[in-house]
Amino acid sequence: MRNKKYTDEFLISELYRFYENTGRVPTSRDFINQKEYPCYNIYKITFKSWKNALTIAGFHVYGSLYTEEELINELWTFYNKTHRTPRLSDFIKNDEYISCAHFIKVFNTWDNTLKSAGFKVNRHILNLPENQTCEICGGTSLNGWKIKDNKPICHRCYRRDRNYLHGILNKSRKVE
């Protein structure tokens, strides 16, 4: 469906057709390199943005338009279905739920998201005095602290150590 002139009405009808076929609101990615639908760029040129095209079509546009209440309800919907505290990974590239990016936009961090919804945070994060230094790098952290071997370490060192260990484990699992 390339290299044609499209009316606004036809482009909107294609958004509805996608919705009817998939049961979800289309994303711009759905219209990139698709031979079945007009290209994303045509929507961008015609409507000035993908968000405008969805708004004109009458779809609820994802992004900052979600209220805190809607996002919290989404977390509880997940909890009622799975009977466990939601993880960030549950909302990454999962079309069944609102993207994790929308939670982060509103609540700034995943931990704040869980706290706002009334869930317990699954990690051990310490609130130590401002003059506390990391046992590994000697630096201070604004992002909270973790515990390793009963010693406080900064978030950066915790992640670096964790990634290093994952790399070792992955190398040891490879079969030659």
What would you say about this model in short?
This protein has 176 residues and is mostly helical. It is 46% helix and 5% strand. The protein has three domains: 8-57; 68-117, no CATH class; 135-176, no CATH class.
Protein architecture, described:
The chain is mostly helical and 176 residues long. The chain has three domains: 50 residues; 50 residues, no CATH class; 42 residues, no CATH class. Helix content is 46%, strand content 5%. The chain has seven helices and two strands. A two-stranded antiparallel ribbon has the order 1-2. A hairpin with a 2-residue loop joins strand 1 and strand 2. The longest helix has 19 residues. It is elongated, with a radius of gyration of 22 Å. The N and C termini lie far apart (47 Å). The C terminus is likely disordered.
